[in-house]
What we know:
CATH class of the domain at 639-648 and 662-794: Mainly Alpha
CATH topology of the domain at 639-648 and 662-794: Leucine-rich Repeat Variant
Helix content: over 70%
Strand order of the largest sheet: 1-3-2
Number of strands: 3
Strand content: under 5%
Structural class: mainly alpha
Radius of gyration: 35 Å
Distance between the termini: 104 Å
Amino acid sequence: MDQQNFAALLDHLRSxxxxxxxxxxxxxxxxxxxxxxxxxxxxxxxxATAVDAGVTAMSLVLLRKVLNQTPSPYISADAxxxxxxxxxxxxxxxxxxxxxxxxxxxxxxxxxxxxxxxxKEDWSELWDNVFTIIGAQGGDVQLKTMCCEIIxxxxxxxxxxxxxxxxxxxxxxxxxxxxxxxxADLKKAAFxxxxxxxxxxxxxxxxxxxxxxxxxxxxxxxxxxxESVESMLxxxxxxxxxxxxxxxxxxxxxxxxxxxxxxxPQVDAGARHMAVELMLTYCExxxxxxxxxxxxxxxxxxxxxxYTLNPEYNEDWDTTGxxxxxGDLEEDSDLIIGSSGxxxxxxxxxGRKLQKTAQTLFANNINAPEWQRRNAAVLxxxxxxxxxxxVFAQQLSSLVQMVVPHVKDESKYVRANTLDCxxxxxxxxxxxxxxxxxxxxxxxxxxxxxxxxxxxxSSAANCLDSFIDNVSGDEEDDDxxxxxxxxxxxxxxxxxMCSDCVAMLNSTQYMFVREAALGVLSSVSxxxxxxxxxxxxxxxxxxxxxxSLPNSPEVMKTKCKAIECVTLLACGVGRDAFxxxxxxxxxxxxxLCKAGLTSDDPRTRFVMRGWTCMVECLKxxxxxxxxxxxxxxxxxxxxxxxxxxxxxxxxxxxxxxxARPDGxxxxxxxxxxxxxxxxxxxxxxxxxxxxxxxxxxxxxKDLGVGLASYFRDxxxxxxxxxxxxxxxxxxxxxxxxxxxxxxxxEEMRDPAAQQLAEAxxxxxxxxxxxxxxxxxxxxxxxxxxxCVGVHPAIMSPTNTALxxxxxxxxxxxxxxxxxxxxxxxxxxxxxxxxxxLEVEDEEVQATITSVCDLIGTLLVAxxxxxxxxxxxxxxxxxxxxxxxxxDEFYKTRATSLLSDFVSNAPQSIVPLLPAICExxxxxxxxxxxxxxxxSDFFLMNVMVQLLGAHPETNIGVNGADFAVHVxxxxxxxxxxxxxxxxxxxxxxxNALSLYVSLxxxxxxxxxxxxxxxxxxxxxxxxxxxxxxxxxxRIHDVILGWVTNHHxxxxxxxxxxxxxxxxVKAASPDCLSDAAKHYISTL
Length: 1082
C-alpha cells in the first residue's frame, strides 16, 4: 500500500457507512500490525502534508496512538526514518497549530518528543523553536498555546531536561501571561504548564510568575469572562493540591483575591464556587499558614455561613428523600457549597481559631425571626461540629438544649435540618452525647416520627438510626459487648420507637420513608437484641410484607432494609424465640441465592450479611442451607479484582472516563521522569470480596468445626487474599480465616493442620514482608504463630529473622514519627496546631502499642522460636525507653514488653533479671501516672510469681529480698489518694493482685511480720473489679486459700469467711467459670 492509498484508507475510517468503516478499520489494523514503522512514517507524512483537514485530524490521532505503543515503532526505525519523522513533526508544529487541529497536533509532537528523549537523541531544533515561540513578544497566540501544551504533555517524562532550561521556560511563560487580547486559551495553557513544572522541582524558579498569574485572573474578573476565571482557578486548585510551595509567598494576596471573587454576587456561580474550592484546598494543605493570614479564617467562615442563608428547595421537597434532593442541588447550589465548606474549613483549621466566630453566628441566628437564619444556624452546628469537636465538647449540653427545640420549629426545613444536625452530633460526639444527653434528645426526636411532612418524619427516623447506631460495643467479646448501660437508656423508648415506625410503614406511600423507618428498627434490633423479644410477633409480619413487594427498582432499597431487619432481629432474640420464622427467612434467602444473585443486585450484600445473622441465630441448625450459600461466598472471595495499572500515553486525555461503569474508579498518578499511570480499581467487586470474607470468618467463629467439610476450599481462598494489594481489610480477613481454621484443626486433632501450615506459611511470610498496615501485620503474625504452634519445625532461621526484622522496623518507623511529634510540641504556640499534634501523638501511641503487642503475641505463640531474636533486637530499645528523658508512655511500653518476656520466656532473660527488678522498683517510687503504675505493678507481680515458683533455682535474684522491697515500695500506694481515684481503678486492681501474689508466696516467710496488715488491705480492697483478667486471678487465689486453709490466713484468724463473702459479691465478669461453679455449690 502506498501513501496515497493509505491516506484514502484514513478517510474511509471517517465514513458514515458502517460496513465501509469496519472494512477500513480491519485494513488499517492489519497495516499497522504488519509494518508499524512504515505506517508511522506514512501518517507523519500525511499529517504534515494532507490538504483535507479531516484526514489530517484522523492521521494525527492515530499517529499519536502508534507512537505511544509499547514498544514504540519509532525505537525500531532506522536513522533516516527517525530524521524524517522529526522534520515532519516540525512542519506539523507550524502548520497545524490552528483551530481544531491544535490539540491533536500538540499531542502528536509531544509523543514523538518523548520517544526521542527516552532514546537519548537530540532534538534541539524542536525545543529551540518552542522556547523562541513562547518567548516572542506579541507572537502568534495559537502557536504559543500549542507550544505550552507540548511542554505540559512532555514535562512528566522530560522533567530533567526542563530543569536544565528553566530560565528559558520562565521567561517564555512570563511573556505568555503578558499577551494581550484574545488569549484565554494561551493563558490557561501557561497556567497549567507553570503549575505542572512547579510540581517537578522548579517551584523556586517559577515563583516570580505567581503575581503575573494572579493579575491574569483579576483582569478576566474585571472583564466578566467568568469561564476563563473558572478554568484558571481550577488549574490553580490542582496546583495547590500537588505542590503548594509555588503559592506560599503570595498566600495573602491569593486568598484576598479569592475572597473578593467568592463574595461578589455579580460573579458567575461557577467562578465563585471555584474560588471557594481554592480557599478550602489552601486551608487543607497548609492550615498553619492560613491561620496567620490576618482576619482571613473568620471572614471566610462567615462567608460560607452567608452561602447557607438563602437556600432554594425543590417544590417536591416534602415528598423527596434527602439523597435525591442533594443530587439535584450539588452542581450549582450555594447551600451545598456553603454547608460542605463549613465542614472542610472546620476540619482544616480547627475549633479554637474559629470558635468565637462560630459561637457569635450561632447565637445571633438560632432564634432569629426569619426561618432562613435559624436554618443556617442549625446547619452551622451540623457541618462544623466534627472539626470543632474540641471546643464544642465543652459546651455540648448547652448546645443541645439550644438546638433540640427546633425539632418543633414552625418551618419544616428547620425541623428537618435540626434532626439532621442531631444525627450528625450523634456521630461526632458518640458515645458521650447518647449517654449523658439522651433525656434531652430522644423524647423530641421520637415524637417527630409522627410529623405530618414525610420528609421531616424520615429525618427523625434517620436521626434515631444515627443516635443508636453510632454507639458501638466490643465486637470481639461474645459474652459482653459493653452496651448494657446504653440499652438501659433506650429501654423506655423501645415501645414508642417500634410502634411509630410500624405505623409509618403501614401508612406511608413513600419508599424513602419506609427505608428510614426500617433503618431505625434495624439499629434497635442490632443494639437492643433480646429486649425486642416481646415485639417479634408484630415486627416479623411487617418485614415479610416488605419482602413480598414486587422487585421494582424503587422498591429494592426497602426490601434490602427488610432483609437486614428480619435477620438482625433473629440474631438478637435467639433461636428459640425466632423458631416460628427461621425456616421462612432461611428459605427466602436460599431461594434468592439459587435464583442467581449478581454483583450489581443491591440485595446481594444484604443477603450475605443476613446469612451471618441466621448462622449466629441457628448455629448447627443452619447446616442444611450451607450447601447453597458457601459456594457463592467462595466464588466472591476468589474473584480476581485487584487493581490494574496501565501506562498513559503522552497526550492521551480522559477519553475513557465517560464510559466508566458504576463500581469502577480510575486514578492517575505521576512518576516524575517516567510519565503518568492509570490505576483502575473495581470498587464494587472489591466490596463484595471483602463482604464475603467477613461473612465466612463470622461463620467460622459461630460454627467452627461444623464447617470442616469446607475448610480446604475456604483456606485456599484465604491464602490468595494475603497478596491482595488494594484492600488491607481483605488481607486481614485472609490471615484471620487461616488462623481460625488452624485453631479448629487443632481442636479436631486433625493432621490437616500441619498440611495447611506448610501451605500457608510461605504466603504469610511473603505477605508480611510487603505489609505496611500494623493491624494487618498483627493478624498475620498471629496466624504465623498458630502455624508454628501446630508445626514447630516449619519456622526456618531465615523466616524467624524476617519476622523479627519486620516487627522491629515497623516499631522504629512509628517511634521516629512520635519523636518528631514530641519535638514539634515543644516549640509550637498555635493552639489549634497543638490540638492536631495531640491527636497525632495519640494515634502514634496507639500504633506503637499495637506493634509492641505483636511481640507479646509471638512470644505467646512460640517462645522457643522468637524469644532469643527478639531479646537481642528489642532489649536495646527497652533500655532506652526506661532511661530519662523518656516519658511515661515509653516507660509503660517498656514495662509491658518486659512483662511479656517474664511471663512467656523467662529462661531467655535470666541474666537480665537483676536489672529488671531494679527498674521496676525505681519506677514505682517515681511516677503517679496511672497507666505506667498499672504496668509496673503487673511487671513486679509476674516477677514475684516467677521467683516464688522457683525458690530453689539460682536465677540471679533472691526472691525473698525482692518481695520485701516490693512490699515496702507498694505499701505507700494503699495510703494515698490514688486508691480512691476513678482513673486508677485498674491500677488498684493490679496493686491488689501484686499483694495477693506476695502473700501467696512469701506471706509465711519473708513477709510474715507484715502479713496481717497486708491481709487487712486485701480484705478492704475486695472484691476486685475493672481489670477482669487480674480480678479473676485474684478471686481464684483467694478461694484457694480459703478452701485449702492456706497458712497465710493464720496471720489473721477468721479472715477466711470475710474473704469468701467479698468474693461472692464480685461481678460475674470478674469471676472465672471455676469460681462461679464453686460458689454456686456453697
